[in-house]
Write a structure and sequence with these properties.
By secondary structure, the protein is of the alpha+beta class. The chain has one domain: Cytochrome P450 (Cytochrome p450), CATH 1.10.630.10. It contains 17 helices and ten strands. Helix 10 packs across helix 11. It binds protoporphyrin IX containing FE. The site of protoporphyrin IX containing FE has 24 residues, from helix 13 and helix 17.
């Protein structure tokens, strides 16, 4: 950070502000360096403590005495509508019951069955992308990063193709609304309310259709679970769909976008991937570490807990900065370097925290990895080079799910290369 400090503000306070400020979304990493150097805990907004280092982030995420059910009021006091309760914000036994109803659809083995379909979707999108625009310029987010995860999650659930775009619009309004209310404009709060109403209306209708006419999809299986007795209430069913749709694609969009941007900025790594497309699988994890799609989460102490010498009273909240922990030089060799072989077989590297850890570990991790691996493999074999006219590209204001609003690139197809 090279600019002058505003009067009365310390470098650490400035880093706290910049780590949440929308005009710093393109590079929160220098602020994270300052926060990590300041200590394991740094006073954050709303009486929270920021957790910028890997060690404490890892400990807190693994400890079920840190709850994820109690921050809703703190983060969303202005919510006019109840976001339908999703198990992301629940504790056992409700969390265990509801997660158990969908977990089978997301195991590594079940997801492996989607490999062929994922390759087909990627191939079709690549065909269109490479044929687009006389000068080869495309918005990579529109051409690949959005449609891939949206198609996959909608097909898995059983949302008809003509409604995919509607689902995208609704979930985008909801995703921004996941940020603390404090950071949202009145328009964004109103957009969230509207999006939640639309979501409820759309899926209530689709659920009614599936009750009458079952199909071979996840929505039908959830409807059946609801019908079998007290396994899932109608509100819980909507909450489960909401988290699957929003978490299922808003995040992966940014993984693909951030990943391609990282490759463009690190041509040696792009060249390594092109030379060995089998690097695509470990590369997916390295990109997750290097530029995490979900930058933070919150936790609240359920009882007195001591972490690294600091004692938290029950009810005290922390903001765990995944994006910062993933770049902690105490946990990763050359933490600021993109190294696509970091997670290659036989290598030893700490796990990244981009899918969280513990009770709420991302249920969609195998699907996200499959989508990213497939996209990277296709890029490695079909794209000769990307040119980036604007660096950094524009970012969305979103804090929790951080990513670009567009990524215009000129794509040079493989065939044209000399
Ligand atoms: C790159 C893509 C993704 C990233 C970075 C990501 C990240 C995360 C993180 C960090 C959490 C934990 C949040 C916390 O503990 O506070 C989480 C939970 C979750 N994710 Fe993902 N996610 C991704 C893709 C997906 C996909 C594809 C799906 C489903 C189709 C999904 C569904 C979920 C669900 C349901 C939870 C809640 C799990 C629970 O509470 O038990 N995610 N995700």
């Amino acid at each position: 950070m090279s600019h002058d400090l505003p009067e009365g503000i310390t470098p650490v306070q400035l880093a706290v502000i910049e780590s949440v400020a929308p005009n710093w979304r393109h590079d929160p990493y220098r602020s994270y360096d300052v926060l990590r150097a300041a200590g394991p805990f740094v006073p954050g907004p709303m009486d929270t403590q920021l957790v910028p280092r890997y060690r404490e982030a890892d400990l807190i995420m693994q400890n079920p005495d840190w709850s994820h059910a109690e921050e809703s009021e703190l983060l969303h006091p202005d919510s006019e509508v109840e976001l339908p309760g999703s198990f992301l914000w629940m504790e056992p036994p409700d969390h265990t019951r509801l997660r158990g109803l969908v977990s089978k659809a997301f195991t590594v083995r079940t997801v492996e069955n989607l490999r062929g379909r994922t390759e087909q979707v990627v191939a079709d999108l690549m065909d269109k992308m490479l044929a687009q625009g006389s000068d080869g310029t495309v918005d990579l987010l529109e051409a690949l990063a959005y449609p891939l995860p949206l198609t996959m999650v909608c097909e898995l659930l059983g949302v008809p193709a003509e409604a995919h775009e509607h689902v995208r619009q609704m979930s985008s309004g909801i995703a921004r609304g996941l940020d603390p209310d404090l950071l949202l404009s009145p328009e964004e709060l109103a957009a969230r309310t509207k999006a939640v109403h639309q979501f409820t209306e759309f899926f209530t209708e689709l659920l009614a259709q599936r009750r009458k006419q079952p199909a071979d999809d996840l929505i039908t299986r959830l409807v059946q679970a609801e019908a079998e007795g007290a396994r899932m209430s109608p509100t819980e069913l909507l909450g489960t769909l909401l988290i699957l749709v929003v978490a299922g694609h808003e995040t992966t969009v940014n993984l693909i976008g951030n990943g391609v941007l990282a490759l463009i900025r690190n041509p040696d790594q792009f060249a390594a991937l092109k030379a060995d497309p089998d690097l695509a699988a470990p590369a997916a994890d390295e990109v997750l570490r290097y530029d995490a799609p979900v930058h933070l989460t919150t936790r609240t102490a359920r009882k007195e807990i001591t972490v690294s010498g600091r004692t938290f009273a029950p009810g005290e909240s922390v903001i765990v900065l995944f994006g910062s922990a993933n770049r902690d030089p105490e946990a990763f060799v050359d933490a600021d370097r993109l190294d696509l072989t970091r997670y290659a077989a036989g290598k030893r590297a700490n796990r990244h925290l981009s899918f969280g850890l513990g009770l709420h570990y991302c249920i969609g991790a195998p699907l996200a990895r499959l989508e990213m691996e497939t996209a990277l493999r296709a890029i490695a074999t079909r794209v000769s080079a990307f040119e980036l006219p604007q660096d950094p590209p524009p970012y969305r204001p979103n804090l929790v799910v951080r990513g670009m609003s567009e990524l215009h690139v000129r794509v040079v197809p493989q065939e044209q290369s000399r």
